[in-house]
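tool_call: predict_structure(chain=1)
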Amino acid sequence: MTTPTTQSVKVFVPIGMLGGGFAETMVERGMELGPDVIAVDGGSTDSGPHYLGSATAKSPAASIARDLRLLLRAAARADVPLIVGSCGTSGTDTGVDWVAGIVTAIMAEEGLDLPVARIYSEQRADDVQGYLAAGLVHPLSPLGELAPETIDSCTHIVGLMGHEPIVEALQAGAQVVLAGRATDTSIAAAVPLLRGMPAGPTWHASKIVECGAQATTNPRTGGIFATIDHEGFTIEAVDPDTACTPTSVAAHMLYENADPFLLTEPDGVLDVRNATYRALDERRVRVEGSEFRHAAQHTVKLEGARIAGYQTVSFVGVREPLVLADPERWVEVLRKYLFMRVEQALGLTEGQFDFDLRLYGHNAVLGKLDPASGPPRELGVMLVVSAPDQPTATAIAQVMNPYLLHMPTQEMDYLPSFAFAASPAETERGASYEFVLNHVVDSPTPTALFRTEIGATAHV
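tool_result:
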């Protein structure tokens, strides 16, 4: 499939995350531009550790199926690959199988027969323990050295694949590739690299298109299109009324990236310090000068999550002027009473549980960094209780209930009444997860940590 005489490769990204929804006309427009591949990300860690820890998806099956139906039809008509990365939000084996099941059902309904590859990225704890013992695991900031017990505490561990497992699946004949956890860029880079495009322009273009139309003047439109060649790449919005500008394109290197000029991939580092951004017209941007330095050692980043406890939440609305005059002073007094009451009623002391009081309307988002001054007009107080088990978390929240509803300020000689948002006031959130792995492992080959199976039928 590698063709050294290929002059360019075109990549169509319909949206930043599968299941987000896009217009059917946008897909038609994207396909009119003649893509060589359709690439779409299926997940992220943006929404926190719950989805990896529980191996569940953020998006409902109906929204995933709606998007996939349009993309499978388009890929079949144009006879081009469709690549989905980080299936099921976190890229666990369960997530890959879940998306594969949706693909199977759609193809049966649509009368399609596209070769499907499933790439699994979940890692066994025993294998990771072996890598650690062999000195192959290294921490990424801000975490330190990895402890063996941390590995065993994880409910799920995934490795972030680069483009190589995807290329291998395409070479095996797959037209639909359903990948586990993958770097956002790898799904767009696979086909251009397979067809001989240089690494610098390929990885840079893949970074720009990773989030769909976010690198355009109207991110709501969804789609973006890149044409990669041997000298650089050209990028444009799919929507004819939306534009890419040198600023919108260059700025995307800042997105979710510690360095605006360097981007680390499993295979090396993209360097755009010498890149130039030039407007070809009102809608298209030409980028040249991107470079890629291949690493001496291929590394795979590990992500792992574990249960940190169980949570119960309550939410109360406050409109009492004396509370609003100094919310932080009120919360300070409330906090002392809550600790005292939980110890009285349940015999629990600090260290055996935890709770947070978040004041929405007063520094809940930025905290002390908030530039606003003056009292809020109203306050939403969220109580988040964390405990080793769910019954304990709920019992603590129930004990705190009367204080959250009636706590006066020091100046009051009466009990005020606030307004709970729901009845019952306590909502059980279940297990609360935390990320505990932010490490890389030296991999003997780019594909050694991943497993590929051909066919849409989920593995057992």
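agent: DSSP finds 13 helices and 20 strands in the chain. Proceeding to next step.
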